[in-house]
């Protein structure tokens, strides 16, 4: 049989962790065949990969790319991970997504989503609607989605600070069950974010139990990644044990000055849990800065009732004083990012009506005045929609998590039009391969690739992906191990990487010599 494509003479890094070896890789009908080196196989196109590595397509296990492909003006953002070798993105993380909801709540949630993404991206009652919308928009790589608990809660209760009633919880479980049955990849929580933070442990246990019945993981942004990170990790473990769901800890970190170094305790704890039989993994991005909404710097009660209620409070001097005091004094059970670091570590990433603020810290913008008022004024002027970059971690902790054998790679990219997004959206995977693998020797090549491919596919049930074996889906990356590196910086966050030569999705070349082609074979994946 004549192959569609033959990748000849490359260093095969197959995604299993096995030592690299020289081999040919054939593609026919969207599937792979591993052939001996110099096989002489016939193909419609032959790619000479001598001196290059051939790996499975990278799987970004943690993105917030739910809606960006649906916006006509988001081409540069959509392109960024593809040219970095990412052939599949898993969105719906941190409890936030674009489905599901009761039909009567869809219009208000659609309006909120449109503000957040800077354009009309839609909102759907279930995963089937979300999947149909994405299937109708040609894309270069694949996408899968988790069900976001915060979105689910808002879609049943609204953005309110109160416990769910038994009937409301039953409705949430039913909506979750339907979306998981339709092909959503698992349940995610963002327990520092409203309205997810308003939920107690029992509510999450009930929902995680639905995921467990579908054999899908519970994926969590812990309730605290700072001074109470160990306590928050134990809550996640309790949820996993009581529900029976596999546990995946999102972007594991110990952030803020009071938690620096605590990976020396959290990682051994995870290792012990695994040795005891708990199915627990995590992901990590290779940077010491995070990115989120500026409103997350405020105490949770400030957002009770949603964006409109938040802006009303920000306009009230008395409410501002309450917020200022909460940041200074802390609130029980709240991850206080500013209190754990300071306004000098919080830089504005996106403020569409105030672009002069982007790239500058809140402390710099205050110029000796009260930085809280600067933040509050900006939130009020932007109707609550401001993105930030928080320089909250230390390098030693990042390296420890990267090296953990059960840690995989996720960018935590938040692609929205405009501003200066975190460079992790464009730079994560080349940075791991270049800086941490080749330059620092923290990982060997086979281990680094497995973290980006086989380990990720196994965790999220992406059968036939993440490995180069006979019959696997034909998603490939061809890169130069000697030169691959990230180009994205905080000043220019969408610069493409170096050393990523070719990207193949579903058997078709979507990146050739570092440049995107016109091919759009990406699909919606349903584990």
From TrEMBL:
Coiled coil: none annotated. GO terms for cellular component: cytosol. Residues 45-511 form the Amidohydrolase domain. It holds the Pfam family Amidohydro_3. GO terms for molecular function: hydrolase activity, acting on carbon-nitrogen (but not peptide) bonds, in cyclic amides; hydrolase activity, acting on carbon-nitrogen (but not peptide) bonds, in linear amides. PANTHER family: COLLAPSIN RESPONSE MEDIATOR PROTEIN, HYDRANTOINASE/DIHYDROPYRIMIDINASE FAMILY MEMBER. This is D-aminoacylase. It comes from Nonomuraea cypriaca.
């Amino acid at each position: 049989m004549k192959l569609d494509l033959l990748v000849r003479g490359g260093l095969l890094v197959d995604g299993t962790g096995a030592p690299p070896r020289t081999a040919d890789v054939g593609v026919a009908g969207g599937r792979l065949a591993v052939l001996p080196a110099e096989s002489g196989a016939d193909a419609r196109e032959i790619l000479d990969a001598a001196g290059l590595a051939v790996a499975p397509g990278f799987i970004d296990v943690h993105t917030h790319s739910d809606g960006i492909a649906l916006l006509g003006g988001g081409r540069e953002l959509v392109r960024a991970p593809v040219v970095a070798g990412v052939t599949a993105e898993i969105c719906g993380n941190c409890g936030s997504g674009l489905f599901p909801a009761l039909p009567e709540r869809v219009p208000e949630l659609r309006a909120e989503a449109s503000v957040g993404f800077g354009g009309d991206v839609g909102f759907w009652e279930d995963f089937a609607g979300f999947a149909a919308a994405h299937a109708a928009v040609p894309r270069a790589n694949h996408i899968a989605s988790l069900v976001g608990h915060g979105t689910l809660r808002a879609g049943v209760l609204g953005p309110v600070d109160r416990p769910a009633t038994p009937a409301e919880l039953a409705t949430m479980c039913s909506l979750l069950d339907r979306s998981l049955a339709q092909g959503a990849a698992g349940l995610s929580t963002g327990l520092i974010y409203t309205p997810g933070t308003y939920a107690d442990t029992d509510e999450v246990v009930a929902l995680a139990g639905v995921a467990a019945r579908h054999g899908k993981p519970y994926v969590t942004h812990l309730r605290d990644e700072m001074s109470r990170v160990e306590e928050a990790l134990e809550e996640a473990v309790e949820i996993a044990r009581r529900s029976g769901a596999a546990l995946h800890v999102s972007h594991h970190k110990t952030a803020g000055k009071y938690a620096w170094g605590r990976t020396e305790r959290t990682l051994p704890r995870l290792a012990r849990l695994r040795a005891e039989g708990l199915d627990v993994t995590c992901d990590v991005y290779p940077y010491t800065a995070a990115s989120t909404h500026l409103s997350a710097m405020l105490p949770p009660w400030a957002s009770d009732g949603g964006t409109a209620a938040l802006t009303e409070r920000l306009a009230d001097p008395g409410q501002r004083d309450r917020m200022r005091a909460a940041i200074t004094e802390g609130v029980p059970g709240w991850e206080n990012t500013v209190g754990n670091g300071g306004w000098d570590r919080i830089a504005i990433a996106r403020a569409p009506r105030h672009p002069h603020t982007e790239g500058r810290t809140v402390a710099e913008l205050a110029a000796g005045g009260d930085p809280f008022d600067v933040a509050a004024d900006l939130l009020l002027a932007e109707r609550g929609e401001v993105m930030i970059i928080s320089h909250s971690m230390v390098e030693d902790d990042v390296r420890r998590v990267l090296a953990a054998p059960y840690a995989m790679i996720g960018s935590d990219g938040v692609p929205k039009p405009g501003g200066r997004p975190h460079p992790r959206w464009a730079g994560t995977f080349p940075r791991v391969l270049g800086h941490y693998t080749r330059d620092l020797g923290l990982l060997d090549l086979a281990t680094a690739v497995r973290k980006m491919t086989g380990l990720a596919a196994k965790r999220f049930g992406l059968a036939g992906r993440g490995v180069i074996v006979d019959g696997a889906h034909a998603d490939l990356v061809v890169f130069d191990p000697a030169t691959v590196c990230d180009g994205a910086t905080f000043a220019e966050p969408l610069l493409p990487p170096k050393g990523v030569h070719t990207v193949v999705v579903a058997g078709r070349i979507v990146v050739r010599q570092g440049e995107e082609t016109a091919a759009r074979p990406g699909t919606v994946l349903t584990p």
